[in-house]
Amino acid sequence: MAILAMEQYGYYISSFGVETVRPTDFDFEFSGVRVLLPYELLLQNDELPHSWKVTSDSIAIWIASKLGVRAIIKLTNVDGIILNGRLVERIKASEIVGKKTCLDPYAPKLMIEGGIDMFICNGLFVNRVKDYIAKGRAKGTLVMGR
């Protein structure tokens, strides 16, 4: 049901003019901004644990790994990973295994296995995303899986 809710949210986002992609396997390519509808892909490739510890974070990392992507960006409602009351700018995924962060509990394990880095930043500040893409730095946290 949670995966179907993600898919429904994808349809909502597409109502603003963003195209959707609904693959059933990993033989797909797209460019530009697209909303991936995950239900059929996960139904046909049942590899992730069925647990509340696996959310869209883990799904995004898993898909990136299957596609050979080594770096992704997570937009969220916080500035990044906060440990001991401070924003962490860079951290290894292995250092947050078992810690409560803005990532789901299964995500660090997948990042390590897939050698995937993730930059986490507050999506309300569009310039942060632009700065990270254009300059390789912005306010947020780089979680290194490699």
Question: Would you kindly provide a written description of the structure presented here, covering whatever features stand out?
Answer:
It contains 5 helices and 8 strands; from the N terminus they run αββααββββαβαβ. Strand 4 and strand 5 form a beta hairpin. Helix 3 (56-67) runs parallel beside helix 4. The chain is an alpha/beta fold. It is globular and about 40 Å long. Helices cover 34% and strands 20% of the residues. The strands form 3 sheets. The protein has a 4-stranded mixed sheet, with helices on both faces. It has a two-stranded parallel sheet with strand order 1-2. It has a domain at 70-146. The mean pLDDT is 94.
Summarize the structure.
The protein contains five helices and eight strands, in the order αββααββββαβαβ. With 146 residues, the protein is an alpha/beta fold. The radius of gyration is 15 Å and the shape is globular.
Topology (elements, then pairings):
Blueprint: H1 2-14, E1 19-21, E2 34-36, H2 39-44, H3 56-67, E3 71-76, E4 82-83, E5 86-87, E6 90-92, H4 107-114, E7 117-122, H5 126-135, E8 141-144
Parallel strand pairs: 1-2, 3-7, 6-8
Antiparallel strand pairs: 4-5, 7-8
